[in-house]
Amino acid sequence: MAIACLFTLLSCKPCALALRGPWPTTLLVLRSDPTPTSSPSTTSNVPADGLPLPQRRKAIFVILLGITLVVLDGTIVTLALPSIASAFGVAASTSVWIITSYQLAVLGLLLPMASLGERFGYRQVYLGGMALFAVASALCFVSQAFWHLVLCRVAQGLAGAAVMGVNAALVRQTYPSHLLGRGIALNAVTVAIASVAGPSLAALILSVADWPWLFAINVPLAIVTIVLGRHHLPVSMPTQHQRFSSLDWVLNIAAFGLIFWAFDGLITHGFANGQLTDSGQISAAALAASLVLWIWYVRRQRKLATPLLPLDLLRIPAFSLSMGASICAFSSQMLAFIALPFLSLSILQQSPFETGILVSVWPIAIAMTAPFAGRLIGRVPGASLGLFGMVTLAVGLGAMAAMPLYAEMHWRILALLLCGIGFGLFQAPNNHIILTVGPKHRSGAAGGMLGTARLTGQSLGAALAAGLFAFYPPPAATHGPQWAFAVAAVCALMAGISSILRKPAVPAAADQGTIKT
Question: Domain boundary residue among 309, 342, 358?
């Protein structure tokens, strides 16, 4: 939770001085261009922006296809790790680097790629990222050594960071202001479904082919995205011309990478019999070093007019509180997503089919709820939607934690349905605030922070889950998932508190209209 607190504290001036030292469907979004309502929050001084409808449809398809590919790639290889470990003769623990290398590369490079989008144009960075993604996927397909595959996954992570870093900015440029809420909701639904669809798609591919084909399928889809994107994505002019030194990039990558490596190591392997292990001492020292690195990095960024780490945006209370809420919400979601299959498969000994039903309830509920939440943007304050959504999520997670171990399956489905509804009500309005509360020329930085919040929350949630499972080994393993759901409920409540603390924001630029936070 350290970074969640950091984003919230940066909105506080004394802390900064201390550092200085009704129901819409997906098809309706694509098909129609309804007349905006008379609500002043959505139609006041709305400029003629966004793409015309015929081109908008094609641009939406390209944007969603690209984000689907890079989000899927973060989880699609999970099911193939045993096969990859066997093929290269490495330990199971070593094979996890296939996933970790991709995630760390994306997390460390999201903000630099978003900055490149502001400097060279979002379309150019997006297409360059997809081109690199295609090449890196092809190299993964032909890899003959384990560490060669890991390096190719790092290249995929660089490409994924380029696509994710400018994704939200492209969404903002594609939709007119009065439809932006729906566009953000559709994007959120796509990311939510892609985040959990990886293992299912992998199972389908592995039933007819070997693991290298998990990477091969990316190549033709990436090429299609590039060809269509060249013709249909909005063309943007550079919005800032400040150059960042290589030290800024290195500090950004090291600051994010080191703190998560240290935090994960401290939680999962840092303690034994109530004492700090040798590995824990190394992790604790690395965590302390990462905090020093963060202080240096932030002090250096404060001297820049348009910093790589967007401190100018984090000084906006609504932005920093929304970032903190997003980190807590995604931590909550990841805790639940890790605990659920462990509970179903390992403890309850349910079939893969039954587990699949449970895992699918959450994203299906998000897909049903997020478009409705997108329609409410501008009509209902985002703080109210965020609080209601996170309280609903906390109730569902609390029910999962308190439920008897062998409760009927339909009760678990009902609880998970509440979780998905709550998350769906929260995500789109919160994303809308992050993306629009700052000036439009900083859309790239805001979009980069949007992805950073998601990945930060997911990484923290995974580390917390690993720590809980390590603390409750067999025969007490049944307590691990229960505590994971309980901690997830607390994270959801923290997200709700961050949401309700937001005050109505004054738009940063005239092109934004009136924003209800």
Answer: 309
